[in-house]
Amino acid sequence: MNRIFSGIQPTGNLHLGNYLGAVRNWVRMQNEYECIFCMVDLHAITVWQDPADLRKSTRELAAAILAAGVDPKKNTLFVQSQNPDHAQLAWIFNCVARLGWLNRMTQFKDRENASVGLYAYPNLMSADILAYKATHVPVGEDQKQHLELARDTAQKFNNDFKVDFFPLPEPLIQGAGARVMSLRDGTKKMSKSDESDYSRINLTDDADAIALKFRKAKSDPDQLPDSVAGLEGRPEASNLLGIYAALSDRTKEEAVAEFAGKSFSEFKRDLTDLAVAVMAPISTEMKRYLADPAQIDAILSEGAKRARAISSPIMGEVQEIVGFLKAN
């Protein structure tokens, strides 16, 4: 079976965009692949994180993933920092990858006073994948460049040491995902940093909060169009129809056809009912997990053991290839 590695930064205040963009896809992949799912806290600290907030956010992300339906018995679910093989392989890749490759990476451009970690973190991302010899990586448009770097690094390592060791991981294209925008401004992405809590659906929101936020979501006075082209210049209508399509597992074209000619208020009622049906059970289950942090920690600890069981023999071979002396 093909092996997937996928990671999410523990950012806290998870919202509907995080769920539709990543977490839901993990749930769907777990029955088709051997899945290694990781909360990449080493990546998170490339910019300053308050330690207490980072721990809180990591548990919140784990709770959301579990509440959404990822089975920790079927998959390897863990925290990146709990497996030191990631960091060791990243250092080796720091010595394999070329400066020119990193200079072309978009994450570092136009950043003043950035950390060395932010500059070099694509090599850590390569290590995340290759420490498990993952064959496939789910990617969106903004991540293809990082996967190409992982492939280049794997190939250069193989060439430098004259081995056929690391696979060249393939992208797993998830299709056109919903780009979820703010409920208060359809031109801005839904974000945890927005001052208004009404701009987003938090994964911890209960049914009443979800319903209230969609009722208050910005709209326009016109009826809904009969084609996607008719959404041009109507960012709020486009956003809400996109959310409806994503939550109902349909295309945006199908959602537009269903509500063509209807009023915003009528559409919002159906959208609210759908969102509550999908999201409220996740919120309830997430709160149950968060009420028992020891349970979350135990699940993640077991996941880390499973992760190390996979990566440890691979790293043993890497150390042999590179020429490191083995400890007695």
Q: Any low-confidence stretches, pLDDT <50, length ≥5?
A: none
Put simply, the count of helices is 12
State mean pLDDT (0 to 100 scale).
92
Report the principal-axis shape: globular
Number of strands: 5
Sheet with the most strands, sense and barrel status = 3 strands, parallel
Give helix % range.
Answer: 40-55%
Radius of gyration equals 21 Å
Q: Looking across the biggest beta sheet, what order are the strands in?
A: 1-2-3
How would you summarize the topology of this molecule?
Layout: E1 3-8, H1 16-29, E2 34-39, H2 41-44, H3 51-68, E3 76-79, H4 85-94, H5 99-103, H6 116-130, E4 136-139, H7 144-160, E5 170-173, H8 207-216, H9 235-247, H10 252-259, H11 264-290, H12 293-322
Parallel strand pairs: 1-2, 2-3, 4-5
Helix pairs in contact: 3-11, 4-6, 6-7, 8-11, 9-10, 9-11
What does this structure look like?
This protein has 328 residues and is mainly alpha-helical. Helices cover 52% and strands 7% of the residues. The strands form 2 sheets. The protein has a 3-stranded parallel sheet with strand order 1-2-3. The longest helix has 30 residues, at 293-322.
Spell out the key features of this protein.
328 residues, mainly alpha, three-stranded parallel β-sheet, 12 helices, 52% helix, 7% strand, globular
Write a brief caption for the model:
By secondary structure, the chain is mostly helical. Helix content is 52%, strand content 7%. Helix 4 packs across helix 6 (116-130).
